[in-house]
Design goal:
With about 150 residues, this protein is mostly helical. The protein has five helices and no strands. It is elongated.
């Protein structure tokens, strides 16, 4: 397993996922900005403040690290031959990691002393679809580098 390719696929997938979420935020005029929401919630304080640059950086790194971890597990399943790198596998894996993300965000919002006031159901749905975009992007990157696991329609 080439960790550089996993890193590239994870960062690319997370970038596309974040772009998807930002596009939904722009189109529907919603404050669905993943890294900003995470940076507001990371200090875990009752008083909501504008995030300091260090917190914003930590939120960004955490966001991308989670994307790389999800991508690592996709690639690990490919290497173990538990899945093949096709559109269906990428879509299903995206749905699974999206569900994990939705559960994680729902728990985080429920235990946070003062979560940001957003339309949580719409945000979580956006997050779920965003993870499908992450998975599909990672699968496409893997397809570029691994001829033995071609992306099939």
């Amino acid at each position: 397993m080439d960790f550089g390719i996993v890193l590239l696929a994870g960062i690319s997938g997370t970038l596309i996922m974040t772009g998807f979420t930002e596009s939904v935020a722009f189109f529907f005029k919603k404050p669905f900005h993943d890294i900003r929401i995470l940076s507001i919630m990371l200090p875990f304080q009752k008083k909501i403040e504008s995030p300091r640059p260090g917190i914003y950086l930590a939120a960004t790194l955490l966001h991308y690290l989670i994307g790389v971890i999800f991508t690592y597990f996709y690639q690990w399943q490919l290497m173990e031959r538990w899945i093949i790198n096709d559109l269906l596998s990428a879509f299903l894996y995206g749905g699974i990691i999206g569900s994990i993300a939705v559960i994680g965000w729902r728990i985080y919002f429920s235990i946070h002393p003062n979560p940001p006031p957003i339309d949580l159901k719409s945000y979580l749905l956006t997050i779920w679809f965003g993870h499908i975009a992450l998975s599909m992007t990672a699968a496409a990157v893997f397809d570029l580098f691994f001829a033995s696991t071609p992306m099939k329609a």
